[in-house]
């Protein structure tokens, strides 16, 4: 039976630490500020944006929401980002993805000032992560690492397999495991012998976007299994990329869905925004 790593518990701890630091920053006259842009009325994006605003209020940040209509032009969106880049009380800017089809996501990511890019999607921040000398880490992979650290799991020398190679999860996830001296394999839809590769993993991270994709025969006895997926099963119930019922008895540690990696993402966003506020105000420690 696996130990369940609770993202609820770890994210609450991270948010409490951020709240404490925020209080001390406020004593120095700085209130961290996050601007959240949402374009259109995608219901999932609306839920994410509301949760981000709620988290800001909880840790003591100021937050500004910019809800733009679906027909917003690229020019209008870039003009707003330009204004926010120049606004001193805003330390972090995030534009909720996906954007409506007529908008160019890459151009939007490039337009956000790297100093305010608390999602760490800007090429300049991505490059810094590659080098291992960074200010911000992308929130979801950083959240997975936080869970690994909290559980006291040693990455060094372990066989780590990441299923998924997206720019926001899979690729940076692999890089962070590599930084901690894991021996990392990245799998994707063209990978041959996926089952065998996964079954060799000491640490398996699933970021596939397919409900219950990872079955028991893909998991080594005693493996650490981290499930990034947020999907709906055939009954419309929230589930991960891992078939939890099958895999849990074989794993040594596992993250549930919901209540695993999900809550970590927003907690790490708070951490990045706090860091952005400190960097922009030249405050090293509080
Ligand atoms: P993407 O769709 O961008 O990437 C999915 C990856 O999985 C791709 O690299 C794809 O390969 C790979 N893949 C798809 N099918 C297979 C297959 N049959 N075998 C092997 N690899 C496969 O998804 P994201 O990275 O954005 O997200 C992954 C999951 O994580 C989703 O469920 C998403 O909802 C969730 N998520 C959760 C977050 C959280 O806060 N917990 C935050 C972000 C995402 P290829 O590149 O070849 O197409």
Question: If you had to describe this structure to a student in words, what would you say it looks like?
Answer:
With 286 residues, the protein is of the alpha/beta class. The protein is built from 10 helices and 11 strands. It has helices at residues 7-27, 43-59, 74-86, 105-111, 123-131, 139-150, 170-179, 194-199, 244-247, 261-280, and strands at 3-4, 33-39, 62-68, 92-95, 159-163, 183-187, 203-206, 224-227, 231-232, 238-239, 253-254. The chain has a 6-stranded parallel sheet with strand order 1-11-8-7-5-6. Helix 7 links the parallel strand 5 (159-163) and strand 6. Helix 1 runs parallel beside helix 10, helix 6 (139-150) crosses helix 7 and helix 6 crosses helix 10 (261-280). Bound molecules: NADPH dihydro-nicotinamide-adenine-dinucleotide phosphate. NADPH dihydro-nicotinamide-adenine-dinucleotide phosphate binds next to helix 10.
